[in-house]
Structures are given as C-alpha cells and as structure tokens.
Amino acid sequence: MALLEILLAGWALLGHAIFWVGLANKSHATGFPRRLITGLVGLAHAGLLLVPIALAWRAFRGQPGQSLSLTRPGDLGLTFYYVAFCWLVALVHVPIWIRQRLDRSGRRILRQQQSKSYDVAAQLGRRPVSGLRATLLARVPGNQFLQLEVNEKLLAVPHLPPALEGFSLVHLSDLHFSGRVGPDYFRAVMERADRLQGDLVAITGDLCDKSHCVEWIPELLGPLESRFGKFCVLGNHDQKIRDRGRLHRTLVAAGCVDLGSETRTVAVPGGEIYLAGNELPWFAAAPDVEMPPRNAGNSSPSFRILLSHSPDQFAWARARDFDLVLAGHTHGGQIRLPLVGPVVCPSWSGAKYACGVFHEPPSILHVSRGISSYTPLRIRCAPELTKLILTRGGPEFPR
Fold it and tell me: What architecture is domain 105-391?
C-alpha cells in the first residue's frame, strides 16, 4: 500500500505542475496587456510553489500523528478534490506529451542537418554582458547563451517549384537587443549570418527590448546581404518600444521589408515567392491573404512563406495553404531537461512546437531557438542561427 500511496502522490504532483506551468505558458501566448500577463505568470508561480504547502497544512491540521491516505477521500476532506483534479490533469496530458515526443513527421522533411558551434565569448576574449543579472547568469555552470549554434538544414518541400530547387533562407529570430548582451555578440552573429549567403533573410520578431537599442539596428542588420531581400515581423517584446513608428522606420532604413500584416510577391528566376507576415496576437490583424492559384497555367508558380513570431499561428497558415512557416518566440524552452525536454514554453500548445521542423500538411513549420533572450540563461538549449535549403526531395545538400 505504501508504494501505491507514493505513486498516487507523485502522479498528483505531476498533474499539479502541469496545470500551473501550463497557465504560465498560455499567459505568455496571449495578447493581454503586459501587466496582466505578469500578474497571471506570478499567480502561476505562486500556485506551483504554495498550493502543495497550503493543502498539506490543511490536510494535517488537527490530525497530528495520524497517517493519511490518498485512497480514502475522507482523510483529506476538500484537499482530496484538488488531488483528484491533478490526477485527471496528468491523465489527460501525459499521453499527449508522449505522442508529441514520439512524433517523427518533421524528420521526413528534414533530410539532412549540418551544425557547428561557436563560443562567442572565447572568440571575443570576454563575456559581452552588462548589468548584475547578466553578469551573474553568465557564471552559471552550463549556461550556453553565448555559444552560438549555426545550422544548415535541408528541407524536402512538397510543391516546391523546380525553379526554387536549392533556394535558401537565413532564419533569425528573437534578437532581444536590450543591452544585457552587448552589441559585440550580435556583430559576431551577423558576421556568421552573412557568411551563410542565403537567398533571402527572414527575421521573426522580438528585435528590441529597450528603446535605446533601436539605434543598434542599422549597424547590426544593415550589412546583412541577400539576393532577394530581408524581411521581418515584430514580436511581443517589441511592444516595449513605445515609439514603434521609429522602430519601423529604422528597420526600413536598414534595408528590411516590414511584413507586419502585409504581403509581398518576390520575383525569382523562373518563378516567384509569396510572402506574408502575421504578428498576432500582439499587433494588428493578420493580413488579408489572397493566394495565387496553384497550377492554374500561370508561368510563375508561387511558393508561399509566412513569417510569424509565434508558432501558434501555424494553424492559421495551414488553413491558408502556406508551404513554409518561420517562427520563434519559444526560445526552445531555454532550459531543456534530460529526457523530458523543454517545460516552460510560451505557447498555447505548450512545448509541442518548442523548436525544430514540423510537418502538418499542407504546411511545414520551422521554429528557431532564437539568437538571444531578455533573460540570458540557456541550459542544454544553445542559441540558433539557421540556413534552410529547400529541395524537391534530393538526399544530399546542393553542391
């Protein structure tokens, strides 16, 4: 019986953690005002830590020396109903988590990946951080926030027009210019991004956390070059910039095309690419998408790409027949536990789309772990710069 009691208690604690962590994750996925989100997240953290203490105190109060049993509801009183609720939460969510962990749909699309890691602090000869918080976090053992991973991923894309065989995109997300991580780090990142020589650059939000860092954009993003342009959308942290008109103007002056709630058609040799931006739920409504017809005899077949800060817009993109969706926002969870993976992930789907490649026909989703973060702490979750190479199904990288 003791073993059964331990298992039941552990299952209840698991459901308790799933519920309160899920509340924090979903709060960050909303478009609520930042103060309300902060309050909800604070409530979630308090509930995670304090509810078990309060319930244990209530259960044992007035029953010193007596052994309580989770299998006898009368022993726990009202506490039993919360425990039963936690059992139910775990019963519902654990199978979902297992199914997500076993999902291999993205692996059929991701034909090959080449990765290289760069210790930017070692390259610079110092840690480019400012402020007490960043300085202390930089000394946390295992913190990878200055260890950039550069990936080249070969994606086998259904409906890829022959003219776009080998077409490449450099995907950057979550730059988080705040001053906590200095511009020297971002210069090193942008140098690596430029060396990737992508045909198109896509930046999927959370560029600036502090207004004075808007001034960094021309120096850092301006020199990035690509054959067919640099395109960007904003993210939730960009709401912190009160003068967003200045932010938009600075991005445009740096050569970026602002796709927020907009669409563009980019002509490429032998074809075209249809681009759209979606900044929901934080900014204006999604664009009024008018998709060019497929296989309608037009001489320039269209390939459809959506830039969205949040992977939660994947369903919106699938409903509108986008071929490829580029997103960020989740930072890969920032802390990835052994076997478990990411836990804290600001999405309605929890950790389902934390990072990587996902395929839910008709669309492919690539979620970047991001270049940086406002809180510079990454455990088993290095920042990521990615070049995506599109193919109609070839097994090797284009040479």
Answer: 4-Layer Sandwich (3.60)
